[in-house]
Amino acid sequence: MAGWRVVTSALNYQTVTQLLEDLVRCPSVNSRLEKGRGEGAVAELLSRWLSERGVDADVRDVGADTWNVIARVGSNAPRGRLVLCSHLDTVCPVDEQTSTSGVDGPYMVGRGSVDAKAAVALFAAVLAECAHRPARWDVTLAAVGDEEVLGSGAGHFLLDNCRFDAAIIGEPTGNRLVTAHRGVLRFTVETIGKAAHSSVPHEGSNALMGAVSLIRHLSEWHSRYDWPQDPLVGAPTLTPTRLNSGLGDNIVPPTATVTFDRRLVPPEDPDEVYRSIIEHASECNLPDGVRLSSSKSISIPWVHTPADAAIVGDMAEALNRNGLEASPMGVSYGSDAWQFAQAGMETIIFGPGSIKAAHSADERLLLSDMYAAIDVFQSLLWNP
Fold first, then answer.
1. Is the pTM of this model over 0.85?
2. Domain 184-300 annotated CATH 3.30.70.360
3. Which of 163, 198, 230, 289 would bridge with 250, disulfide CB 3.0–4.6 Å?
4. pLDDT at residue 7 tops 50
5. Domain 13-181+302-382: which CATH class?
């Protein structure tokens, strides 16, 4: 631990570790998922922790058992206004036991330990430290709900809070500086045929066979097409993720629905990509009597913050000061970053932990990763 850090600091290893353990032990499964009760309990826990350290936090019910915690410290800091945003919600728990969560040797284990309560604990400790030690930035904490499904927590926050110069989105990046991620387009294509008894299949039009042909047709076409390539996030992908069909074991299926997940890269426009895919879907060789219908469900833009953005340079400098890799990188997964970027802020993604551990039955954070992130923020905000 660096010699200049005072023992009473909120931003010390032991304090942040204890806060993280408390957050992980408090269930906060997204209310839109099975067994999910929302973020209410963990929001109250975080608010109480901040209040005990002199920071007033506003706990907001933003609908559908979704909760945000918003807090701010600072006044006219030289670098401007910075928002630190991460999410309180988790995906479904492996089991109903929270007692299995906590410190296990060099790890913090349990649902949310990586995605993304590590970043929440780090950001909250940063804000508490700002209350007693003026930072280079005027800092706001947005600990939001519903990131894992609709992103409504961040959206609600941004309705009234768009005047920031920069945003850091807390996600597990292995303490790498992430300036880009791919976007997401999700859509369904329904094949519509005609039911018949399976003993006389020729009297029907098999929509399931049409769906199988469609998946093969689009997959082969997409793999051959000359799509744009991005140096940070790579190439776009098209993945069929669901196939629903059938009325009974002895009935020719009259309908089938295929869900596709299409990852977008700069400079792709989601509407243009969707139109292109559906146009080529119409060229599929379908069984006689089968037709197509399509609909778009989700469209999330890609993020690409320029390398010369001020927050990119500041974070790279902080990483360099701590002997960590400072070159910008891109990731294939999405986050709430797009909402902040669309609101006009310079936006980066940063946090301890590996994305490979997120949503897994063995989710765990190497605590030394958290300690390194603490040191990076010491450099970023106070530049010792």
1. yes
2. yes
3. 198
4. no
5. alpha beta
